[in-house]
């Protein structure tokens, strides 16, 4: 599949360059490709700084309210879209440069933001459901038992509480002893 995608990319890029060269000439095609590269570098620099500033501001807010959480998610999505646009601008070609420049425009990112968030949420759901999402703690890797439960807040009654209840039972220790018995 990656080979097919790469071949498709090459066909689209070559077709775009041939079409542009036949429409405006080879010299103007070269000027257009170089101009897109320079414009892309300028856009990468300015939008990269802007998105980095938004990420810093979102990190400072630390999601104190739903509005802060939405702004933080928007900053992260914008960062991802600018990163994708930067990669597209670095890949040689006319079509990839145009797509990369489109991702550098804030209005285009605002339109794509909900789509990217929906795709990312679906991907995370799939990874969690399949057990392939590994946390940083090795004890939660797939194959272990997960017990689902709810946290119930204790009542905040100022009256003194009765003594705790004792539940009688037997504790079975299944850990092996150190001497190997």
Structure description:
11% of the residues are buried. The protein has 181 residues and is mainly α. It has helices at 2-24, 26-61, 66-90, 94-104, 106-130. The protein has five helices and no strands.
Give the topology:
Elements: H1 2-24, H2 26-61, H3 66-90, H4 94-104, H5 106-130
Helix pairs in contact: 1-2, 2-3, 2-4, 3-4, 3-5
How would you describe the shape?
elongated
- Can you give the helix content as a percent range? 55-70%
Pick out the low-confidence regions.
none
Tally of individual helices: 5
Largest sheet entry = none
**Average residue-wise pLDDT:** 79
Write down the secondary-structure element order.
HHHHH
Features:
181 residues; elongated; single chain; 66% helix; 5 helices; mainly alpha
Task: Give the structure's gist in a few sentences.
With about 180 residues, this protein is an all-alpha fold. It has 5 helices and no strands.
């Amino acid at each position: 599949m990656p080979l097919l995608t790469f071949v498709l990319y090459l066909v689209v890029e070559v077709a775009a360059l041939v079409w542009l060269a036949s429409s405006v000439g080879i010299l103007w095609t070269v000027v257009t490709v170089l101009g897109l590269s320079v414009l892309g570098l300028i856009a990468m620099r300015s939008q990269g700084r802007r998105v980095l500033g938004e990420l810093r501001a979102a990190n400072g807010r630390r999601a104190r309210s739903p509005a802060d959480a939405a702004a933080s998610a928007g900053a992260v999505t914008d960062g991802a879209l600018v990163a994708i646009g930067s990669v597209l601008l670095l890949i040689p070609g006319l079509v990839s440069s145009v797509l990369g420049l489109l991702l550098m425009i804030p209005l285009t990112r605002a339109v794509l933001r909900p789509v990217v968030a929906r795709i990312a949420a679906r991907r995370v759901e799939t990874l969690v459901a399949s057990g392939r999402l590994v946390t940083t703690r090795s004890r939660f890797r797939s194959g272990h038992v997960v017990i689902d439960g709810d946290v119930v807040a204790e009542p905040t009654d100022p009256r003194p509480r009765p003594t705790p209840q004792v539940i009688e039972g037997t504790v079975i220790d299944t850990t092996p002893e150190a001497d190997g018995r």
